[in-house]
Write a structure and sequence with these properties.
It is a single chain. Helix content is 34%, strand content 22%. The chain is of the alpha/beta class. The N and C termini lie far apart (40 Å). The structure holds iron/sulfur cluster (SF4).
Length: 239
């Protein structure tokens, strides 16, 4: 086992919203994107956070194994875990040796040999499809829609289970056409078995204030529960 060190932002020992069952969630430090809706600007810098080894992380996760049951396990989130694919692969390889399920929460904007190697030990991907149009991706994320679709096609080829996730942002993507398009993406990729629509929230405003940077979507209202419930009817097979 190598002694690669990685940088993480934080750990949530018993998370219930980032993948199936109860999960040990590791938030990676560093992100190559600058989504205007980002809730975690404090994860962007790759030079901050805490340095640790994969072994240290998996040893900690093992303490919670009895809570994982048959569905739960480890989730790597961020930030963007794909920026530290070698480190992430080491965590997942060790987890699998201990019989712990592995789940990767990613924007899916990077696909290289290191990422493919990481995916070879990944049980499920939570793929954040932020928009269903290239123009919105370029304006509000900083990568192309095509790069995310290429990533999804690769997951489909490999037969890795996928949950599509999308934050519903009022006035930007809270329309039926967008959610229907998301449903079509799921229909065209048999690896997708679930779609999660998440409300846009602004509790992150304080992080932006502390960092003394603008929250680009600060004037957009939060998403109400009714909007999410209404949109779910367009993706009935996946909720
Ligand atoms: S990919 Fe995630 S962490 Fe990175 S900027 Fe977008 S929302 Fe923030």
């Amino acid at each position: 086992m190598s002694l690669i060190k990685g940088r993480i932002h934080s750990i949530q020992s018993l998370g219930t919203v980032d993948g199936p069952g109860v999960r040990f969630v590791v938030f990676f430090q560093g992100c190559n994107l600058r989504c205007k809706c980002c809730h975690n600007p404090d994860t962007w810098s790759l030079s901050e956070g805490k340095e640790c080894t994969a072994l240290e992380i998996v040893e900690k996760a093992k303490r919670y194994k009895e809570y994982f049951g048959t569905k739960g396990g480890i989730t790597l989130s961020g930030g963007e875990p794909l920026l530290q694919s070698g480190f992430a692969k080491e965590i997942f390889s060790l987890a699998k040796q201990c019989g712990i399920n592995t789940c990767l929460d990613t924007s899916g904007c990077i696909l290289n040999d290191d990422v493919k190697s990481l995916l070879s030990v990944t049980d499920r991907v939570l793929l954040d499809v932020k928009y269903t149009e290239d123009a919105l991706y370029r304006e509000n994320v900083g990568c192309s829609f095509g790069s995310v679709m290429s990533f999804l096609s690769y997951l489909d080829e490999c037969g890795i289970a996928v949950t599509l996730r999308q934050v519903i942002i009022p006035t930007i993507n809270d329309d039926a056409d967008n959610v229907i398009a998301l449903g079509n993406i799921a229909e065209n990729h048999k690896c997708v078995d679930k779609i999660e629509l998440l409300p846009f929230k602004k509790i992150c405003q304080t992080k932006y204030d502390e960092m003394k940077i603008d929250f680009p979507f600060s004037s957009i209202p939060q998403t109400c529960v009714e909007t999410i419930e209404n949109l779910k009817k367009y993706i009935k097979n996946y909720v």
